[in-house]
Amino acid sequence: MIITIVIAFISLIILIILHELGHFLLAKKFGVRVDEFGVGYPPRIWGKKIGETIYSINFLPFGAFVKIFGEDEITSDSRSFSSKPIWQKSLIIVGGVVSFWLVGAILLSIVFSIGTPHVIDDNVSGLSDAKVQIVGVGVDSPAEQAGLKIGDHIKQFSILNDQFSIDKVSQIQVLTEQHNGQEVVLTIQRGKKLFDVELIPRAKPPAGEGAMGVALVRTTIKSYPWYKAPIKGVEATGLLTFSVLEGLYGIVKSLILGQGMPAGAQVVGPIGIFSLFAQVGQLGVNYFLQFIAMISVYLAIFNLLPIPALDGGKLLFLIIEAVRGKPVNQKIEQKITAFFFSLLILLMIWVTIKDVIRLF
Predict the structure, then answer these.
(1) Cα–Cα distance, 100 to 109 (Å, whole number)
(2) How far is the first Cα of the chain from the last one, in angstroms, to the nearest whole number?
(3) Angle between helices 86-114 and 285-304 (to 10 degrees)
(4) Most buried of 77, 80, 170, 359, CB within 10 angstroms?
């Protein structure tokens, strides 16, 4: 688990580095001077100036940054960010966000190449690797109390001295219905681990839930040739983006209407994300890469939100500049940005506290 968390931490740092690289490359493309490209945050451990840019390694390993000349101050210097036309400044800002989507598409392309779980019907025959996989666990259900998690494969169903190998969802449904109220044993595969869990299917489950409290699908591993995998990766990135936007719209709508967070929706912070990484890491490389791709898409969309202190906020100020015909007063922009940055920090602290309470 510790190794998985370390790999997860490094993966997130690499995502942020690539994000900043997007800003860096577009700034260079349009002739804007980049004073520093740093990995981690100051104080500086090591730095080397190559050309006009200092490349540095810094003490706090929580991300990366790029210091672009004229981004935080208005200057008439032709090499400054502030002197460039609005369309170039917009592309420099968007370059970092686009890098998240590119990373997501590349990772999903790799997943489709090496093989990814593919949902199939019970009536599909002739498969040697068909598995019944858990894709949902009800709150306070027998499954949750037994420690079952999303991604687990149910290999075997045992009751008394009878054992049944499982490779179809209908088998679980029939066996569970026959033994409601009795203690059963499920043999579970989680990544490379194989173990048994005991639970008692409910005779009268809540509305909308089954006796065990799990949602199941039948899957098989499907891979694509190298020339099709990138196409599938781009398609999957687009579908994932649409799903995230749809979910975000549902949350905002529900909050505006005073209905609270929609059922199943949950905000997680760094601790929650690392907990999910630890769970996904047990399921295999393809699941791990898929999860990083999902995080990358989430970061892209989050960064585009029109909130000062994010890339979307910078774009918002550029739109205002385009409408007004002149930039927003620098001091006002800095104060607004600092205010929203403080709010984001407070939100992060609040979410982190909730993660700790929920997980520990």
Answers:
(1) 14
(2) 16
(3) 160
(4) 80
In CATH, what number is assigned to the domain containing residue 163?
2.30.42.10
Give just the sign of the alpha carbon dihedral 224, 229, 235, 239: positive
Whether the bond between 43 and the residue before it is cis, its omega within 30 degrees of 0, is yes
Angle of helix 311-324 relative to helix 330-359, nearest 10 degrees, comes to: 150
To 5 degrees, how large is the angle CA 84–CA 85–CA 86? 115
Positive or negative, the Cα torsion across 73, 76, 78, 82?
A: positive
Structural domain that includes position 6:
2-33+69-115+262-359
Q: 180: which residues sit within 8 A by CB, 6+ positions away?
A: 201, 202, 203, 211
pLDDT in tens, 306-351: 998 899 999 999 999 999 988 888 889 889 999 998 998 898 888 8
Count of beta carbons in the 10 Å neighbourhood of residue 196: 12
Helix H segments across the chain?
Answer: 2-29, 86-114, 142-145, 169-178, 229-256, 270-281, 285-304, 311-324, 330-359
Q: What is the pLDDT of residues 69-105, one digit of tens each?
A: 998 888 888 999 999 999 999 999 999 999 999 999 9
Grouping H, G, I as helix, E, B as strand and the rest as coil, residue 150 is: coil
Q: How confident is the model at residue 266 (pLDDT cuts 50, 70, 90)?
A: low
Q: Give the pTM.
A: 0.81
Report the greatest alpha carbon distance in the chain: 83
**Residues 280, 184 share a domain:** no
How far is it, in rounded angstroms, from Cα 288 to Cα 104?
A: 12
Question: Hey, which residues does 195 pair with through a beta bridge?
Answer: 188
C-alpha separations of 6 from 2, 11, 341 in Å: 6, 9, 27
How far is CA 312 from each of CA 50, 93, 318, rounded to the nearest angstrom?
31, 8, 10
Crossing angle of helices 2-29 and 270-281, in 10° steps, is 120
How many independent structural domains does the chain possess? 2
